[in-house]
Amino acid sequence: MSEPAADAATPTDPWPAPRPDGPVDRVVSLPGSKSLTNRALLLAAIADGPSVVRRPLRSRDTLLMARALASLGTGIEDRDGDWAVTPGSWDADADVDCGLAGTVMRFVPPVVGLARGTVRFDGDPHMRQRPVGQMLAALGALGVRVDDDGRGALPFAVQGTGTVAGGTVTIDASASSQFVSALLLAGARYEQGVDVRHVGKPVPSLPHIEMTVQMLRRRGVEVDDSDANRWAVAPGPVRAVDDEIEPDLSNAAPFLALGAATGGRVTVTGWPSRTTQPGDELREILALMGCDVTLSGGDLTVVGPERLSGVDLDLHDVGELTPAVAALCALAGSPSHLRGVAHIRGHETDRLAALATELGRLGADVDEREDGLTIRPADLHGGTFRTYADHRMAHAGVILGLAVDDVLVEDVATTAKTFPDFATAWSRAVLGTSPDRSGAPT
Ligand SMILES: O=C(O)C1=C[C@@H](OP(=O)(O)O)[C@@H](O)[C@H](O)C1
Ligand SMILES: C=C(OP(=O)(O)O)C(=O)O
Fold first, then answer.
1. What's the main place this protein lives (predicted)?
2. Using one digit for the tens of pLDDT, what is the confidence trace for 293-322?
3. Do 60 and 204 share a structural domain?
């Protein structure tokens, strides 16, 4: 498979977040969705023939997925920026680097049961802390042998035997919707399919499970999701289908925030009229914060108010939007309560602790609660915003930098997880220019 080009600019660290000198007026096009790209790649790899993933995201997370599937024996070739995927016979041992990608650590092991060989999984240091034990236990119950050190975490090895019995399994997926998506994505290829029942606190990020279900149905897979907390996938082939990947609507958050926080106007092109991406919720969230939001002919335009309003929001379904929304709340003129997101403590970092610490470091008045944050208006000041290897923490930092002088964002390059060369795109959007190699705006 083809490797990505090196980033055009290597930003300085910490990186001075650019601040515009007034309301901006910009049109922005965004790279593809991580969640759609990684599902499309995985489903293409277990499909009944070759297919093409069009306009895929090429970022760290999707390259890790492509490499994982290629190391199993899948053909993945670059075709004018698209990825042509040819299913292969999976009959060798392999090592999979999950990096910090939840979608790789959770989605790949269930399909490895269909391979013949030992596949070892590991990842970045923090990845060894992210939850996966419930899903590994469920795989064991479905007939896939997983060897780990008893912690139910990376590193672990999956012993593929070529077939998986499948059947009914009970799982507590309150830590991550990806446990459910992972089992469903592989389930059609199990002998008895898979019937997943969730027991426990509510499953977060339900739109992402809906995304999984829709992508399976588009490939002719029968999915019964008529009961709450139960998803049944019938055994059968996964049809090879070419998918065109939508722009990443969660990564639209900082760009829409640019309009929202500056009292300016930002249009994101290619916004789908119907989508399962949780980022679509930004339309409602930004409207609640006082923005004028219009979707017309695939262009989503956000016009910011003079001062943003605080909001009281349950973000349980759209937890990955929390860092950007919290940053906007810190700029608002009234208090905000963000609720329902205890599970994001298991994301790239403990996002509630990280946001409370880093917003607070720049003067924000923040209370960290077990399942959320309370943020009250305060005078903010410059300083270093730490990001904890979390791309969405970097987004939060640059959003603050829109309204506060001298915000330095630590390790802005961590955005490469889901957005190639974010610093250049961000500088261009904020200033209408791009940074030079030293990171200084030109
Ligand atoms: O299935 C997916 O593509 C995702 C599901 C969500 O995970 P959680 O359910 O763990 O929050 C989301 O936060 C993550 O960014 C992507
Ligand atoms: C939680 C996230 O990622 P992951 O797919 O690694 O879980 C995220 O992108 O916000």
1. cytoplasm
2. 999 999 999 999 999 999 999 999 999 999
3. yes
